Amino acid sequence: MNFSQLKDKFLHGGGLISTFLRSSVSSQVASWIDLGMSMLFYSFVFIALDPFYRSNLSVAVGAIAGGVVNCCINYRFTFHAAGQSVKAVGVKYFLVWTGSLLLNMYGTTGLATLLSHWEWLVNLGFRPDGIFAAARLAASLAVSWGWNFVLQRNFVYRPTWFDRYAIRLVNLILRIATPRFRRKLEKTNPQN
Question: Where do the structural domains in the chain lie, given as residue ranges?
Fold first, then answer.
């Protein structure tokens, strides 16, 4: 097999290995954005907060940024789901992402708390930022492989029985929100 065939199989193949490799690329891009945003907010933005809130809020900001990037890349590149309903994919992704967020938040905070009590790590010179980074990376990898990939491959980017309910939910939200949004715009901008 030559390079062109390998590249084509990676980019367009539908097998488990090709999909997993594409998912790994997407996950890495999203994870680096997630980790970078988490570290940025933990180290500079939320520095004055109690450690529990500092950790959880930092993880949440990173997870939101990484989740948006991951969903977009996966829709087109990883799972080739361009024919799937964006509404259904959005709702299903949000459900899986919410579980991922909670697992990442409490997994990171729990692991960081556990590691910070290990005296030998502190004696080796690990500071709270380093312990947080190690806990964040470990939790992120575990959740990425054991939760995100499995559910995205088998639920989010495939047609399921749940799709019709997800689409109805989005349509209901749009029907409720749209008139309110229009009225709000009219109040703030009466000339239009």
Answer: 14-160, 163-192
